[in-house]
Amino acid sequence: MGPAELAKFAALYTVIGVLVWSVRRPLLAVSSELRPVGRSMAAVSIWDFIFFLAFGVVVTSSVTTAGVLLVFSFLIVPAVIGFIFSRDVRAVLAIAWGAGIAASAAGLAASYILDLPTGAAMVTAFALFLLVAGIAKALVLVAADRRRANLRHAVRAVLALALALTLAASLWLIINPAGDQPLAATFESATGFGPERFLSATERDVYESAGRDRVRFQNEVERLDAQERAARVQGTPLSDEEIRRIASYQQSFNEMTRGERFVQEVLRAKARARERWLVGLPAAIISFVGLGLLLRAFWRHRSPVGGIEEWALTKNSVAMTSE
Fold first, then answer.
1. Which of 37, 47, 186, 213 is 20 to 30 A off residue 120, Cα-Cα?
2. Residue 194 Cα distances to 37, 190, 283, angstroms
3. Buried b vs exposed e over 172-194: b needs ≥16 C-beta within 10 Å?
4. What is the C-alpha separation between 80 and 67, in angstroms, rounded?
5. Burial zone of 280 (CB within 10 Å; 0-12 exposed, 13-18 middle, 19+ buried)
6. For 49-68, what is the mean pLDDT?
């Protein structure tokens, strides 16, 4: 984004900000009530049109530069965070501005430090800020009894999500062991329980050897890249012959890397074909039973009969204690 485009956006948003601020009272009135007292439906429709017109101008002028997700993250997430903690307009504005600035700074910092795409990093930062705000509201800024109830609900929700993901990953492993298994790969990298455990001794040696060779070839490619970059930085560019030779070496190493990766993928598919029955099937059964028990407990808690039984048990226990 150049200075001219930045100035254009600054002027546009200044005009829209002044417009919205000047008519903030009727806009707040029609936003908080379906039909404010003393206003006709025609007046309400006019103010709605003004609001959505300003909203549409902001969205259409920003999406081409920042992207849909980032624009709507800026427009919606800070306001939602503000309304999580307060219903007073001044407090909501202060919280929303603070959360928006903090999330933007966190996203930019993560993008710079971790070398991530800026838009995706900022959208993720907004999502994390919203999640943290919801958790803080539900588990911290509430009464003790409500906090305990929310904590129970949160634990059950997390457990249900984990069981559902395990069930989905297990079924996918059983159905298509040769396909991509993102959850299985994450579990393997976190625990070190890799697919080579389901290979024979000979297959395991080939798998590990291919992994070592793959790393070695990748290091050679990176070394040649570093050599070429260093020559440019030092002001002594390589000759055409040296560049062609480096490119030829890199191509050879890349092809060998792909070959070793192919060997590992074939052996990994063979290992997961065995793993699906030894790990996938038991995990699917356990997660399915766990989800069933959670669902049963949920409906039992929601059922009037279950509530009456719990009330009766509580009453009897109190009576026995008093005796």
1. 186
2. 67, 10, 16
3. bbbeebeeebeebeebbeeeeeb
4. 20
5. buried
6. 85
